[in-house]
Amino acid sequence: MNAPVSTPIAAPAQYDAILLASFGGPEGQDDVIPFLRNVTRGRGIPDERLEEVSHHYRKNGGISPINAQNRALKAALEAELAARNIALPVLWGNRNWDPYIPAVLQDAYDAGHRRLLMVTTSAYSSYSGCRQYREDIGMALTETELDGKLAVDKVRQYFDHPGFVEPFIEGTAASLAKVRAALAADGKSADSVHVMFATHSIPTRDAEASGSSELELREFAENSAYVAQHLAAAEAIMAKVDPSQEWSLVYQSRSGAPHVPWLEPDINDALADLAAAGTQGVVVVPLGFVSDHMEVLWDLDTEAAETCAELGLTFDRAPTPGTHQKFVSGLVDLICERTIENHIEERPAMTKLGPWFDVCNPGCCANFRGTKPVISEVGSTVGLVAAGSGNSR
């Protein structure tokens, strides 16, 4: 379905290249602590504490899967663009590890590029999922003295774009059928299964600030665009998979001070509650992630799977979009929404919340830690705005 956006759609433009922007991750044991220093910069966390939370990287050889996945996504985007005869090179830059965004922007400028269109590996509205990327670009342009020389725009958040949602429909249906078959084979009720949509927990204050510029124009579930977008996407998925199937939204990968409220319930607590209520099988859908990041491989495939084994729950985890052809094609469609050549006028959305807007209103998804330059806000290119902290992948 389509719904009107509350912020004007950006006029199509002529772009020189695509910037695939992501979180980044270590690629060896020696990288782990320097990477975690980057992630937690400005918070004064000692290396001893960082080492305590590095175990999931250490057990994987110090390697995060995210960089290899981004290389694969970059190649898939290049192939899709070439298949459509769209002559836009794809650059790749990370917030927290090599290739770093400032160096990528400098290289782009040196290569003669003057206007980039950014696609991020985050589908939802939040500080860490949208604004922090825009701040990183703003800071990088300032750091490299390219502000006013190199322009960077960003595609809309795509939580309900068919290219993102449809791979989850396929994967959820397959996992649900698998768990039901396993339960039946064990002589258990095939109907005693629950679908859990899992996403990264964020501080409650950040969640309530997500989409904050829209709050006067519309209502969000739990007063949060971040929460509402996940619930809407999950509802759209289950409407196609099985409208009668029970499901819930749960959270994972919490970090930070214990006294600071974060979104709940934690997936492992929710699993224990389901088992106590008689549920015998669980399908976990990593709805908050575009590919099998460390949070998926560790928090879901390892910790949640172990919790299910301890509770006697049959477990299966649905796939992330990764390089699914529909996802890759959808990202190129999002690019074409913003380009003059190969322009796509229609903006599909599978929930009533979308299609989300192109350019954020000032203060949208604001956070609470000083000021940083930011790009892509109504009426400004790079300006100083409220900044903050958070998690993103």
Automatic annotation (TrEMBL):
One Gene Ontology term of the molecular function aspect: metal ion binding
NCBIfam families attached to this UniProt entry: PRK00035.2-1
Record-given protein name: Coproporphyrin III ferrochelatase
Gene name of this polypeptide: cpfC
Alphabetical keyword list: Cytoplasm, Heme biosynthesis, Iron, Lyase, Metal-binding, Porphyrin biosynthesis
Chief site of localization: cytoplasm
Claim: Iron is one of the keywords in the record: yes
Family as reported in the entry's similarity comment: Belongs to the ferrochelatase family.
HAMAP family, A to Z: Ferrochelatase
Xref: InterPro entries: Ferrochelatase, Ferrochelatase_C, Ferrochelatase_N
Catalytic activity: Fe-coproporphyrin III + 2 H(+) = coproporphyrin III + Fe(2+)
Tree of life domain: Bacteria
SUPFAM superfamilies given in the database record: Chelatase
The protein's role, per its UniProt record: Involved in coproporphyrin-dependent heme b biosynthesis. Catalyzes the insertion of ferrous iron into coproporphyrin III to form Fe-coproporphyrin III.
Pathway of action: Porphyrin-containing compound metabolism; protoheme biosynthesis
E.C. code: 4.99.1.9
Location relative to the cell: Cytoplasm
Binding site for Fe(2+): H200, E295
Biological process annotations from GO: heme biosynthetic process
Record-listed Fe-coproporphyrin III binding positions: S64, Y133
